[in-house]
């Protein structure tokens, strides 16, 4: 007899020829999630199993963050002997009150009783042992599941996991990660759809300090709990910002800054086999996120830019940030490189054809190259 975690995955994404590949990804991602706590992971019979963990709660917490999983159940694994199974069931229902039902499932057809027979037998024995329980087959408070497979597995709790697609099944993209609330949520949304993300952060020392950097690294660490690690590219952005501030029309400062971020991010993305960029923009949230501004920002990008928050309200974004665990870090005070040179009256309806002139005093290529060359890589695990 031992404790194991039963891990269920959604079947929707498993159709067709990709099935073995997706299952391997999923199993590897579960292995990575439990590696720090020493669990043993295997795939068998349409399930993933985790055993040999001391702290089952921590194991559940970690595994529930693996994208592509449906739910988990801490279970007892025991031999396929009716008396042994009954003893375990009685132990599991000890001290419980209210209604219950035993759900039997026999995958091993050599087991002498069928699913209904052994569920009824176990239900009877549990009732005898615990007078505070009643049977309710339609709407039970406690659902005791007993499955006869290679061994017998018994569980009475199902905890929902994050869902989504297995990390790595939808390619790679680069997330523009600021220290704010939005961009970690945007990254989470894309990771949930199977995209492996690296992060790109623009910093402008001495205008932005160590605290801003620490904050971004902390956010990357929180996101890495879902992805099993993350590469963070730290881009020196001071020179670009100073030049934009000096040589461009003030009202377009933020927009031109954003165009530079995209140009630089795209270059770093290309060098790292990423096929898309991700930002935390939400339509109309600030001057640089109006439809007209986004048209001007997108014009410098050749690769697709995913903006998963585009149609969300701030409150909705905040709710997700709280749920995924990045909110508390995001609201810590810090100086973002964008806020340092914020114009007093930003243009909200910029025209695309005015952009070349507004940027004409800048050596765009040299500024982008210098920033890319000065970029530092930090790997967060
Ligand atoms: P957030 O809450 O994510 O900071 P925001 O509402 O403050 O977003 P902006 O500052 O306009 O919006 O930035 C829009 C998007 O641009 C961010 O979501 C992020 O993807 C990217 N971005 C902004 N600043 C930086 C930065 N310093 N480094 C990397 N990406 C950035
Ligand atoms: Mg920001």
Radius of gyration: 27 Å
Large-scale geometry: elongated
The helix fraction, in percent, is 25-40%
Determine the N-to-C terminus distance.
Answer: 34 Å
The SS-based structural class is alpha/beta
Tags for this entry?
single chain; 381 residues; alpha/beta; 9-stranded mixed beta sheet; 6-stranded mixed beta sheet; 14 helices; 15 strands; 23% strand; elongated; binds adenosine-5'-triphosphate; binds magnesium ion
Descriptive report:
There is one protein chain. The protein has 381 residues and is α/β, with parallel strands linked by helices. The longest helix is centred in the C-terminal third of the chain and has 19 residues. It is 39% helix and 23% strand. The mean pLDDT is 94. It is elongated and about 85 Å long. A hairpin with a 3-residue loop joins β7 and β8. It contains 14 helices and 15 strands. Strands 1, 2, 3, 4, 5, 6, 7, 8 and 9 form a nine-stranded mixed β-sheet that branches. The chain has a six-stranded mixed β-sheet with strand order 14-13-10-11-12-15, sandwiched between helices. Bound molecules: adenosine-5'-triphosphate and magnesium ion (MG). The site of magnesium ion has 4 residues, from loops.
């Amino acid at each position: 007899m031992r404790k194991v975690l039963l891990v269920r995955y959604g079947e929707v994404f498993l159709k067709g020829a990709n099935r073995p590949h997706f299952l391997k990804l999923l199993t590897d991602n579960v292995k990575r999630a439990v590696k720090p706590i020493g669990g043993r992971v295997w795939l068998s019979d349409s399930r993933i199993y985790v055993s040999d963990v001391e702290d089952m709660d921590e194991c559940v917490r970690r595994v529930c963050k693996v994208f592509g999983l449906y739910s988990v159940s801490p279970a007892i694994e025991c031999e396929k002997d009716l008396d042994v199974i009954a003893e375990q069931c009685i132990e599991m229902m000890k001290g419980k009150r209210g209604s219950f039902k035993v759900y039997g499932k026999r995958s091993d057809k050599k087991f002498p009783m069928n699913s209904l027979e052994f569920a009824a037998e176990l239900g009877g024995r549990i009732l005898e042992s615990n007078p505070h329980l009643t049977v309710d087959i339609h709407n039970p408070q406690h659902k005791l599941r007993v499955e006869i497979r290679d061994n017998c597995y018994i569980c009475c709790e199902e905890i929902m996991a994050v869902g989504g697609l297995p990390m790595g099944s939808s390619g790679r993209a680069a997330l523009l990660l600021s220290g704010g609330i939005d961009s970690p949520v945007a990254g989470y949304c894309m990771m949930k759809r199977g995209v492996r993300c690296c992060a790109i952060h623009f910093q402008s020392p001495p205008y932005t300090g160590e605290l801003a950097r620490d904050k971004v690294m902390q956010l990357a660490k929180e996101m890495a709990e879902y992805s099993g690690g993350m590469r963070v590219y730290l881009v020196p952005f001071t020179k670009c910002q100073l030049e934009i501030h000096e040589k461009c029309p003030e009202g377009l400062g933020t927009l031109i800054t954003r165009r530079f971020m995209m140009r630089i991010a795209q270059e770093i993305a290309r060098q790292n086999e990423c096929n898309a960029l991700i930002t935390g923009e939400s339509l109309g949230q600030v001057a640089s996120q109006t439809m007209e501004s986004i048209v001007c920002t997108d014009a410098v990008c050749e690769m697709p830019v995913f903006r998963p928050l585009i149609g969300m309200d701030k409150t909705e974004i905040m709710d997700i940030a709280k749920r995924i665990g990045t909110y508390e870090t995001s609201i810590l005070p810090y100086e973002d490189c964008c806020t340092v040179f914020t114009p007093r009256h930003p243009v909200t309806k910029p025209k695309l054809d005015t952009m070349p002139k507004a940027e004409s005093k800048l050596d765009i290529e040299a500024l982008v190259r210098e920033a890319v060359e000065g970029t530092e890589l930090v790997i967060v695990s």
